Amino acid sequence: MPLWIELLVALLIVYGAVLSLAMLWFSRRVRFRNLVRMRAARRAERLEEES
What we know:
Blueprint: H1 3-50
């Protein structure tokens, strides 16, 4: 098998790994942002009820 094919396959494997890690990181960041937003909204509701 030619060397360039092996390099291409290795590059595709690395690309796939980086892409999946980026998707994991992005989804975790979105979930964290939603959690923070919900917590802030809940805190605002609680403050409105107390006053």
